Amino acid sequence: MTPPAATASTFAVSCRGLVKRYPDVLAVDGLDLDVRAGECFGLLGPNGAGKTTTVEMLEGLTVPDAGTIELLGRRWGKGDDRALRQQLGVQLQETKLSEKLTVRETVRLFRSFFETGREVDQVLDLAGLQEKRAARVGKLSGGQKQRLALACALVGDPRLLFLDEPSTGLDPQARLRVWEIVEEFKARGGTVILTTHYMEEAARLCDRVAIIDHGRIIALDTPAALIASLGASQIVSFIVDGELAERELAALPGVRVVTRQAPSWVLSVDQAGATLPTLIALLEGRGLRMDALSTHQATLEDVFVHLTGRGLREQ
Amino acid sequence: MNSRQPGGGRRAGALAELTRARILEFVREPEAVFWVFVFPVLMAVALGIAFRSQNGGRTAVALLESGPPAARAELEARLRASPQLDVKILDEEAAALALRKTRVEVIVALDADAAVPGDGAPPPLAYRFDGARAEGRAARLLVDDVVQRACGRADAVAARDEDAPRHGARYIDFLIPGLIGLNLMGSGLWGIGFSVVIARTNKLLKRLAATPMRRGDYLLSIALSRLLFLGLEVAAIAGAGRVLFGVEVAGSLALLGLVSLLGALSFGGIGLLVAARPRTVEAVSGWMNLVQLPMWLLSGTFFSYERFPEFALPFIRALPLTALNDALRGVMNDGLGLGALWAPVLILLAWGLVGFGVAVRIFRWQ
To answer: Which residue from A84, A267, B76, B342 has the highest number of Cβ atoms inside 10 Å of its Cβ?
Structure first.
């Protein structure tokens, strides 16, 4: 791993005013980003928020309609794109690698594109694919395919790694293995930009998270600071079978934020145990019946709900 | 920790790896192997059998059952005495059907009230044949000649036959080079078109475009991987022709190889061009058929394109499959050298270079 060059900027990625317009939608609407060398930066948002478009513009695969991008001190289209690509590792959403090749043949092919890089077998070890080295790609499980995609992204020993929804569709155990591979890369000092709509993934891997909605950044901070911005540590959500005023709920002890996410009410509270009895008393006094009550520790999802009034997995 | 690319320059490494991957993908696809190797050989066998010289080269004649039995028996004996005729005795209906199906070329009929031979002159005959077919006209002349001589006609001029069949003049000799050409076109276009479009649909092209791979290397590897199979393809068809039908290569094998190579590269370039933009397999299939159809019809694979009107010939000769077929026949049938084949060779080169050059410029990576 080459240490980051001592340039004026310590940012691995820096972009200003990125815009991408498709015929039917404004996918990215004036986005600014600064990603520090060595950090893992997450783009968190629902499907269609513009995460993939943003990442593909950074990767030089999609040309922005407006805005500037600087990666590792270079820009796309200045005649040294291939030199820049030597330093990038990319995992795209939904790439289907050739099913007829074996795991090792596939990694070996990707290795051949890079001037310098890691040994094929070393990367297979890292991705936990050594025992599948002779298996055809078509025979792999979803988790193994995803680890192969990571191996192909890592075999060039990149300084900057782009991961687009690296664990979507994987079971929890397969997801954990993907995370371990990304953590190994981070430990080597690499910079990561990843998109996800799983808040656990963002919370575990990312040093900083930008929450994206409708092509814009609506919040940017460390996961802990974003959660703290709710001003509360626990979330209470429930449904009632009648009318309630927001200010009635806001007046309950320990309630910091009230969000209406129909049909549910969502309260951000300091202590669920302190708030619940008064909530139940309020509802009984009004003759309302409570349904689907749940409480949990606040997560990035709650931050998103608070900011947009919608869940991450809703449209 | 880090390793440099083992052995030689990096460029050659990536191109070699891409080509290797393409070859592995192909040989692991049993259907592709069937279409490229087995199908053309089966086609050559079927056509070779259908168009083989039937009846050991004899002309099929139907003699009607009608007429006085004694006269008919004498006529039958005269016809059967000729080694050039294959005589069948049929009734009116069966004979008419056989003529329509070209199982016989001419029907010989005695008049029903014909006088019995021995009473004087032989009884009059009628020939029925398809005057529009050269085979029909030839059969009529042959049968008449046999009958007239048997009945005592003397030749006015002494003539002898010098039967010297020209090398490579049979239909199968004409067909085998055409099948090689057709197969090089088919495998070049389908083999490249489908795999490129599937890689595009699977976003594999986009993934490759995100690496420092030289984009020209990818396209070149596709054309190069075709070369390995080319030799096997040509050998399969030419070998089947040789073993099953005795089709010889009159010219040099090296030149046959060179012409096949040019043909494969030419259709490789055209295949890349056709596959440069389409996003779906359906779309690329349509384009492939559109490109191939005129060549299937016009390029003289199954029959000579010289039958088309004079004004169309320059256009037909400019088609890549026509040029390839002409060059292959020049080598296999006529034993020509490279100097005599410069025109089709230049046409093939031009198609290949233009196809590849344009494909590289307009290629859609995502």
So the answer is: A267
ipTM of the complex as predicted: 0.84
Q: What angle do CA B344, B349, B354 make, to 5 degrees?
A: 130
Which chain B residues contact residue A61 at CB under 8 A?
Answer: 206, 209-210, 365-366
Separation of alpha carbons B298 and B287, rounded Å: 18
Structural domain boundaries of chain B?
16-51+170-362, 56-150
Split at pLDDT 50, 70, 90, the class of B314 is very high
* Residue A11 structure tokens: 């940012």
- Interface residues on A facing B, Cβ-Cβ cutoff 8 A: 1, 59-61, 82-83, 85-86, 88, 90, 92, 94-98, 100-101, 105, 108-119, 136, 152, 156-157
d(CA B365, CA B197): 10
Question: What digits encode the pLDDT tens for the residues B195-212?
Answer: 899 999 999 999 999 999
Contact residues, chain B, for A104 at CB < 8 Å: none
Closest CA to A102 of B257, B28, B6: B28
- The nearest alpha carbon in chain B to A93 belongs to B203
Q: What is the pLDDT of residues A193-204, one digit of tens each?
A: 999 888 889 889
End-to-end CA distance of chain B: give it in Å, rounded.
Answer: 34
Q: Which residues contact A15 (CB under 8 A, 6 or more apart)?
A: A31, A32, A33, A57, A58, A67, A68, A69, A70
Query: For B32-69, how does the pLDDT look when each residue is reduced to its tens digit (9 = 90+)?
Result: 778 777 887 888 788 777 776 656 678 889 998 887 88
Given a cut of 80, whether residue B316 has pLDDT beyond it is: yes
Tell whether the model's pLDDT for residue A2 goes beyond 50: no
What are the structure tokens assigned to B356, written together? Answer: 């590849």
Q: How far apart are CA B228 and CA A62, in angstroms?
A: 36
Q: How many CB pairs under 8 A join A and B?
A: 88
Determine which of A205-214, A281-290, B66-75, B315-324 has the lowest per-residue pLDDT on average.
B66-75
Distance CA A204, CA A221 (A): 14
User: In CATH, which superfamily holds the domain spanning B56-150?
Assistant: Periplasmic binding protein-like II (3.40.190.10)
Question: If you search the block for the tokens 């494969």, which residue do you land on?
Answer: B264
